[in-house]
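Q: Please design a sequence for this.
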């Protein structure tokens, strides 16, 4: 009772129902996906006289109240709703006289920007006074180092997970435990790439929730020597001296990839619509994979959305590796000219090769180091202008001329620019569809 919208209209049960009905109507065409928080099959009834809302779902919801508190489900007055879409479109908001406490400003001017770099530049130039949700680590660090800006970073409740496939070698518990001990999550989270925006954790619940996280003990803290010890004790050792441990008589080959997630989850149209791109560089995408899983689409140009950017670097004389075995053809794209045929790209098209340390910091910039073309037979990315002796394979089992560990580094600046292009294209598409 007594609650009003900012336009002075009363908030009633009928208004709440009207909003839920509105979400059913417009939700499928937008990107917020309100059905994640309240299924469209739910029956909502309103009784203004009793001042009640009744929601009957088709299945139990353990946290229905929590899901209805998500920002997507914030109740608006559908009768007086306006279209607040459009990048670069400005709006002036006046103070709400019906707000529960005094509002410190008479008005606030909003400017919608979908691009992180544009938001950072607008703040630096003084075009705006406040921005939110800048996720580029370099921009955040620049603002933190300046006395002219205040940066607030709030701990969230979202967790990032890595999943293990129990089919195959990871069905072995000791091997799984050793892998967990061999991952330095502290260094990863504080690297240049992530910049401390994530906190290492080991529970399905984040440490920011008061569910006794501080009382938990992590049995798999970073300890590479302990990882080696338990593998040795389990008989998972290197018997032939090739540098690779064996399990059941076979070399252990682990692929930490997004392909499994694409296979199992991205057949869902809602997730597929939210996918900008997958940079599965260094592990081949094949025609057989795309036929079996139609949601896997190979990138065809520099800016297509929802696609997989994949290539594996080799010297021109390499014909067989365990990454692209002889007889396999990869669906690759050339990161210099963004073509999928054998059109060669010269080193002049290389925006810059950069070599990094394990923290992600650039230790040397080699400039326009090499050119490349796609092999018609193998689909591998053949790298020109460099010598295999100068860039050894290093990875056990790979022949001379296999440039697997240099896949990103040879084309660092081109990939850096392409990520921005695809992200910008995605947000332009989202804004256009919402308009």
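A: Design:
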């Amino acid at each position: 009772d007594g609650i009003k919208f900012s336009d002075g209209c009363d908030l009633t049960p009928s208004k709440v129902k009207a909003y839920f009905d509105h979400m059913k109507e417009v939700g499928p065409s937008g990107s917020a996906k309100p059905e994640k928080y309240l299924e469209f099959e739910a029956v909502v009834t309103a009784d203004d006289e009793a001042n009640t809302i009744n929601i009957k779902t088709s299945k139990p919801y353990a946290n229905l109240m929590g899901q209805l508190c998500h920002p997507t489900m914030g109740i608006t007055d559908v009768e007086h709703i306006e279209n607040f879409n459009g990048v670069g479109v400005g709006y002036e908001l006046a103070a709400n006289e019906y707000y529960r406490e005094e509002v410190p400003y008479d008005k606030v001017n909003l400017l919608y920007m979908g691009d992180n770099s544009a938001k950072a530049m607008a703040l630096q130039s003084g075009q705006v006074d406040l921005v939110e949700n800048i996720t580029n680590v370099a921009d955040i660090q620049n603002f933190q180092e300046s006395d002219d800006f205040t940066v607030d970073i709030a701990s969230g409740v979202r967790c990032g997970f890595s999943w293990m496939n129990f089919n195959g070698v990871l069905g072995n518990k000791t091997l799984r435990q050793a892998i967990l001990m061999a991952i330095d999550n502290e260094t990863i989270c504080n690297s240049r790439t992530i910049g401390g925006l994530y906190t290492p954790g080991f529970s399905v619940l984040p440490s920011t929730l008061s569910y006794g996280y501080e009382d938990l003990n992590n049995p798999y803290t970073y300890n590479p020597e302990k990882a080696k010890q338990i593998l040795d004790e389990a008989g998972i050792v290197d018997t032939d001296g090739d540098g690779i441990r064996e399990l059941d008589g076979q070399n252990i080959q682990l692929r930490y990839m997004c392909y499994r997630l694409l296979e199992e989850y991205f057949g869902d149209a809602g997730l597929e619509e939210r996918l900008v791109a997958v940079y599965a560089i260094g592990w081949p995408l094949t025609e057989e994979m795309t036929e079996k899983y139609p949601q896997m689409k190979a990138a065809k140009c520099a800016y297509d959305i929802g696609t997989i950017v994949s290539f594996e670097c080799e010297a021109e004389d390499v014909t067989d590796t365990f990454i692209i075995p002889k007889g396999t053809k990869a669906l690759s794209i050339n990161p210099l000219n963004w073509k999928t045929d054998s059109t060669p790209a010269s080193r002049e098209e290389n925006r810059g090769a950069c070599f990094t340390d394990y923290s992600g910091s650039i230790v040397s910039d080699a400039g326009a180091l090499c050119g490349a073309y796609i092999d018609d037979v193998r689909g591998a990315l053949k790298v020109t202008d460099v010598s295999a002796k100068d860039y050894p394979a290093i990875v056990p089992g790979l022949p001379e001329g296999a440039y697997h560990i240099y896949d990103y580094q040879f084309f660092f600046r081109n990939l850096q620019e392409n990520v921005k292009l695809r992200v910008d294209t995605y947000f332009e598409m989202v804004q256009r569809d919402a308009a």
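Q: Thanks. Anything notable?
A: The two ends are 35 Å apart (CA to CA). The longest strand covers residues 362-367.
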